[in-house]
Write a structure and sequence with these properties.
The protein is mainly alpha-helical.
């Protein structure tokens, strides 16, 4: 075995072993990188140097701002208003509250950008509401956790920023615009599944549709929805960068949450900032360590070797795309979202591009795959949050989620094989 092959085995082998032993992901990345550097005979001073280089990016400054914006808006009294807006739009259908849950997640995801925040905020309101209306508790939880993944696709998503930074030459504005139609497709797929189950179980309808009520609810929710417009229109229109738009959105969110919706006082704002710091500490440590991990991957030519290996299995683009999805789904079962994006992008993006996938389309594929991973044991963070919010056993929620997994896989396959689902809006707006 050559020295390069041995170092690759040490890097990837030690990382996977620590993952399966349930080491914290930051320790797994850092220790495996250090062992790899030692095996290559390199100085460990490279590790901190690459860590600093990993976060030395202006565009990454958007990540803490978007997280702060999401926390402020998520705790600032907008959940009820978005639920009321969704209810006015789709509550009249069979299984109306399930549809409301899905549509509200689409709206809320455009503000929080976090599946976990979506599940915790909307789930704590909608799950008890659905149970009181006669919906099964496990079904209600399954709808909540699966629809929360829409927020990962709908801008502004900080995971999109992380992907754009890791990929190198991908426009954040293009990724933002690319997420709208896939997010809507996922919502429609989940609504179809919910409708079929609701008809079968005879779940109730809501009040008939009223245009007057719908307009009224838009008026109440407009301040929250404007936060998304500030970011997306500003970035795509070239008015300001993603980082600048995120900073403006934080100030706007603060004003809306404290002075307009009045869901927060200044004491609550400080608690939100504490929560943001806790989240950011984890995210930025992972990004910095993944920069060092990526250095080792590049030095050992792992991306080129992975591309050669995958294409040696089959040169058929359909087979390669399916393999990429399977790899990402399997990674999602054992790793959290940000580490997958940081570690897998340098390896799999060249393979995806070799079979004709656009980097923006692959980014949407990766985010949705990771989102599905958040719902799967043993490391499904959103699955655990949903179980805790609903106070239901996780195994029963997984069973209730099975039909929705199928809906999500259908959406994923359509996104994987129909490029224009992801690329039409960026082309239309000139951001691609």
């Amino acid at each position: 075995m050559s020295g390069e092959s041995l170092s690759t085995l040490i890097l990837l082998g030690s990382f996977l072993v620590m993952i399966f032993l349930r080491f914290p992901i930051a320790y797994s990345v850092g220790i495996s990188t250090a062992l790899c550097l030692l095996s290559m005979g390199k100085s460990l001073t490279i590790l901190p140097m690459q860590m600093v280089k990993g976060v030395w990016s202006f565009s990454l400054m958007a990540v803490p701002f978007f997280i702060t914006m999401g926390v402020l808006m998520g705790t600032g009294g907008i959940s009820e208003k978005l639920i009321a807006l969704a209810n006015a739009l789709v509550g009249w259908m069979r299984g109306g509250l399930a549809m409301v849950n899905i549509v509200a997640s689409y709206f809320f995801g455009g503000i929080s950008g976090s599946a976990s925040a979506d599940t915790a905020s909307l789930g704590s309101i909608l799950i008890p509401m659905m149970v009181d209306e006669g919906y099964d508790a496990d079904f209600s939880t399954a709808v909540t956790i699966t629809s929360s993944c829409e927020g990962l696709l709908v801008p502004p998503s900080h995971n999109m920023v992380i992907y754009a930074t890791t990929a190198g030459s991908v426009s954040v504005g293009a990724l933002f615009m690319a997420g709208y139609l896939p997010g809507a497709l996922l919502a429609v797929a989940l609504m179809v599944g919910s409708y079929i189950i609701s008809v079968k179980r005879n779940y109730p309808k809501g009040k008939p549709f009223s245009i007057k009520n719908f307009v009224k609810q838009i008026g109440k929710s407009i301040w929250a929805l404007l936060a998304v417009l500030i970011v997306v229109v500003g970035v795509v229109g070239g008015v300001f960068t993603a980082t600048e738009s995120a900073a403006i959105a934080v100030i706007y969110s603060l004003i809306v949450s404290v002075y307009i919706y009045r869901g927060l006082d200044w004491k609550g704002v400080w608690k939100c900032l504490e929560q943001c710091i806790d989240t950011l500490a984890i995210v930025l440590i992972l990004i910095s360590l993944s920069g060092a991990f990526g250095y080792c991957l590049t030095t050992l030519h792992v991306p080129a070797k992975a591309a050669t290996f995958i294409t040696s299995i089959s040169s058929n683009p359909v087979v390669v795309i399916l393999l990429l999805n399977v790899i990402l789904l399997l990674l999602g079962m054992i790793m959290d979202m940000a580490p997958i994006i940081l570690i897998a992008t340098p390896i799999l993006l060249p393979v995806a591009m070799s079979v004709g996938l656009h980097p923006v389309q692959f980014g949407i594929m990766m985010v949705l795959n990771c989102g599905i991973g958040l719902l799967t044991p043993p490391v499904g963070a959103v699955l655990f949050i949903g179980s805790a919010v609903a106070k239901r056993p996780m195994e029963k929620i997984v069973k209730a989620t099975l039909p929705f997994y199928l809906c999500m896989i259908v959406a994923l396959l359509l996104i994987s094989f129909i490029p224009n689902i992801s690329l039409w809006l960026p082309k239309l707006t000139g951001s691609l």
